[in-house]
Amino acid sequence: MDPRRKEKIHRYKPLSPAGQPAPSEDLTTDYMNVIGMIFSMCGLMMRLKWCAWLAVYFSCISFASSKINDDTKQIMSSFM
Predict the structure, then answer these.
(1) What Rg, from alpha-carbon coordinates, does the chain have?
(2) CB-CB contact of 55 with 40 (8 Å)
(3) H helix runs in 1-80, sequence order
(4) Is 67:44 a contact under the CB 8 Å cutoff?
(5) Among 3, 45, 73, 79, which residue's CB has the most CB atoms within a 10 Å radius?
(6) Where is the composition biased (Basic residues) (predicted)?
(7) How does pLDDT run across 29-63, given as a tens digit for each residue?
(8) Treating both helix axes as pointing N-terminal to C-terminal, what angle do 49-65 and 72-79 enclose, rounded to 10 degrees?
């Protein structure tokens, strides 16, 4: 005889915190955006042309990888 009631059993489903992305979310766009900002600062401050070109390259990758439901103003400002 089993004292547990089957209708009262609920499976555990972990909730992701509001500030953190879900594990299945691809963060390539964010990484490319940060790398592009780093290279753009190096290109501007140190006057290295190859850093500036890498910043343009990473910025284009970030812009192309962005999702349609992301904030348009934020995407355009990070691309510029």
Answers:
(1) 22
(2) yes
(3) 28-46, 49-65, 72-79
(4) no
(5) 79
(6) 1-13
(7) 888 888 999 999 999 999 999 999 999 999 888 88
(8) 160
pLDDT for 3-36, tens place per residue? 788 888 888 877 766 656 555 667 788 888 889 9
Tokens of 39: 């290279």
Contacts for 12 with CB less than 8 Å, ≥ 6 apart: none
d(CA 78, CA 33): 7
Structure tokens at 34: 């940060």
Structure tokens at 66: 């962005």
Q: Which residues contact 33 (CB under 8 A, 6 or more apart)?
A: 58, 59, 62, 78
The residue ranking higher by pLDDT, 68 or 63, is 63
Average pLDDT estimate for 75-79: 75
The structure tokens listed for 16 are: 């992701």
SS3 3: coil
